[in-house]
Amino acid sequence: MPQERAPPERTVSEEAVPLYEETLSVGKRTVETGRLRITTVVREREETVEQDLSSEAVEVLRVPVGRPVDAAPEPRYEGDVLIVPILEEELVVTKRLVLKEELHIRKQTTRHTERVTETLRSEDAVVTRDDAARADAQRSETLPSQE
Q1: Distance CA 74, CA 37 (A)
Q2: Is the CB of residue 116 less than 8 Å from the CB of residue 96?
Q3: Pfam families per the record (predicted)?
Q4: CA 68 from chain center: how many Å?
Q5: Residue 65 DSSP class
Q6: Among 10, 80, 93, 124, which residue carries the largest CB count within 10 Å?
């Protein structure tokens, strides 16, 4: 059997190589190069100008109307007259007759018998006659009273 050879051992070593880079930094600063002094001077002069001006005058005429409306009317023009409606709310109270209720009255007749016991008094007249022919017999009559 032939002898086997082991592969040669390799050693790997790593080294870091630093890399450098330069950068440019740009900035600014305020540098005083001089000073200024500012003053103001007032000058006066007169100047005449002309300007056309207009003015308007209005006449307001109040016209009483006094009619109820369902909705507010819009302002309107009649010729060169602007008519602006003026509205107010008016309280309206009405009185009306209302049938509130009815009374229904029914008459009922009921019959029944009651038994009542009372003592009643009446007078009777007793008349006695004396008869000569019948001296030995006496007779009595009872007459009821009339009401």
Answers
A1: 65
A2: no
A3: DUF2382
A4: 25
A5: -
A6: 124
Q: What angle do CA 48, 49, 50 make, to 5 degrees?
A: 130
Tokens encoding 43: 């000058």
CA atoms within 13 A on the CB side of 49: 4
The pair of structure tokens assigned to 4 is 């086997």
d(CA 82, CA 56): 15
Interatomic CA distance for residues 8 and 33, integer angstroms: 77
* Widest CA span in the chain: 211
Q: Any idea which residue has 């009339």 for tokens?
A: 146
What is the per-residue pLDDT across 66-122, written as a single tens digit (0 to 9) for each?
A: 899 999 999 999 999 999 999 999 898 999 988 888 888 888 888 888 888 888 888
Q: How far apart are CA 122 and CA 143, in angstroms?
A: 12
Kind of pairing between the strands at 76-78 and 139-144: unpaired
